[in-house]
Specification:
Layout: H1 8-29, H2 47-67, H3 69-88, H4 96-120
Helix pairs in contact: 2-3, 3-4
């Protein structure tokens, strides 16, 4: 009634992305990025870290229906964090204590997210049990 319906936000988002894309093209064409500093970090990507993070994401997608949201997200989190630690060259990335800390951290993140979505927002996420708490 006020002109803003369900199509308003997608159109507004598309317009802003088009504006930002045009601005980036204009900056690139006119040499606007000449004053930027050289990028920091390694010249090439870390393939070991990439494999760890990719494995976590793919396993999450493959197992979320079988083992539930919480466990699949914990697995994804643990593998991604291990990959990022290895890519950063942190010592002790493979130690059992580090794995345990990552598992507990993943549980402390994934479980409340699952409960908020299923209990408060009534959004169905795949669970391990039919009770709705796991």
């Amino acid at each position: 009634y006020g002109g803003a319906g369900p199509n308003c936000v997608p159109w507004l988002t598309a317009a802003m992305l088009t504006l930002c894309g045009g601005w980036i093209l204009w900056e690139a064409r006119t040499g606007g990025f000449r004053e930027m500093a050289e990028p920091a970090g390694a010249r090439h990507g870390n393939w070991i870290g990439f494999v760890w993070v990719s494995t976590g994401l793919l396993l999450n997608a493959a197992l979320i229906e079988r083992i539930g949201f919480i466990l699949s997200c914990v697995l994804c989190y643990v593998l991604a964090v291990q990959g990022l630690r290895r890519a950063a060259g942190q010592p002790g990335a493979g130690r059992p204590r580090t794995w345990l800390v990552d598992i507990v951290s993943g549980l402390l993140i994934a479980a409340p997210v699952f409960w908020m979505f299923t209990k408060f927002l009534a959004i169905n996420l795949p669970g391990l049990t039919s009770s709705g708490w796991l």
